[in-house]
Amino acid sequence: MRSSTPSPTVSIVGVDHAYDNEQVLHDVNLDIRSGESVALLGPSGCGKTTLLRLIAGLDFATRGEVSIGETVVSSTSIRVLPEDRRVGMVFQDWALFPHLDVRSNVAYGIARPDRKGPRVDNALELVGLAGLGDRMPNTLSGGQQQRVALARALAPEPAVLLLDEPFSNLDTSLRLEVRTEVHRLLHELGITTIFVTHDQEEAFVLGDRVAIMRDGRVVQVDTPHGVYTRPSDRQVAEFVGSGSLIAATARDGHAGSPCGRVPVSIANGQVDLLFRPEQLDVIEGDTAIVDLIEYHGHDSMVYLRCDDSSLRVRCAPQPDFQRGDRVGVRFNGTQVLAFPA
Prior knowledge:
Helix content is 21%, strand content 36%. It has two domains: 10-86 and 158-238, P-loop containing nucleotide triphosphate hydrolases (Rossmann fold, 3-Layer(aba) Sandwich), CATH 3.40.50.300; 242-340, CATH 2.40.50.140. The protein starts with 9 loop residues before the first strand and ends with a strand. Helix 3 (119-126) crosses helix 4. With 341 residues, it is an alpha+beta fold. The mean pLDDT is 92.
């Protein structure tokens, strides 16, 4: 149920952080809007979880400011404790107490006078666990345990919700099911949410915007579509989604490629062209050889060899060619993204 009070913004300005003199975050700047869901996406060790812990108050920045709404909660002179920040957090391992039943786990973060009220039952109903309050965590499925952790984070009615790799301990099919349920719930609640993931699909599905992190820095913040179609640099382009990089020479905004001459985003010079699989079509011809076909149910990924380069093409589930066939390839977009070679 959506709160009548708008969820606060979160602002991170010039934040540095180090562990034992090892710099982990470098001048991080990020603004999260009220009611927005933002994914912190990046490889392991890039600083995602550290940034989440700074927002939660589990660690404190060595430089810079963290604000929740109009309140500065962390700076060189201010250190607001986690329990005073109105932040709920779901940990990667869910951190349930094995000796407490579901109701007691959910009630743990609520002030004692409120534990006998409706908050616990409301939180359990919210995540689809009504009637399971007397169960012990080890009698629940992985998906149910994840929902208990979410209910515990929501029961104190936090202003901001933080999730650290919340679905990583679930198997593939359950992960998709629970992810969809959480996505729907976050929209209904309208709560400002920040979550950490190294899974691009997860970030794109759950995030209104995605903050790409690398080596302790935020290198791009954009919508999922913006990150995918307008990556800030070559590393982001290769990290987000699949694609094929082809060396070429740009002249007057065009470059030669296995698809013929194509319009490119850099006018002149030596470039690497990025072709996304859905920007290409396999056609009749003899410029490429089908090297491999991977069937994914809803579509197929076709790998083509073109002289000294290779291309990935997204095709229909049952393409009318097979491995070893000679084919042509066509660019179906308006412009190929290019990076300086």
